[in-house]
Amino acid sequence: MSGLLVLLLGLAAGALIALSPDIALPATLLLLPGLLALVLDRTPGCGVARAILLFQAAACVRPLVNSWYRCAGIDGCMGYLADWHTILRSWLAAAAAWLVTQILPLGLKAADDYRLRSRRSTLLAKRQALVAEWGLEEDESR
Description:
Blueprint: H1 2-19, H2 21-30, H3 32-40, H4 47-70, H5 74-81, H6 84-134
């Protein structure tokens, strides 16, 4: 699967370079953290890298569309897309994606633990009510 992903990324990069070489270099600069994550990610299915690329692609849409219509040559595109506000926004989106992929599993685990504790206490209360109602002896082995 990773070979297919590399092939598709290579085709996309080739298409971008063929369509507009003056946008290809700044777009690579904007997507650099996501591309590095794709190379370095060892999780099954590259989940972290896919999240980072998705967040970054969403943050890069407006700058790339603006540069497509407003830039005249490599200098204009580099000046617009290599602006520190544009790069910071894109790279912060990558950082947010990485943070979400690291924190979300911990939050889900904590929520699941809370749900299980709540269910256990509810079942224990029902058990004690049934034991009291039927006059059974409480099992001390729990």
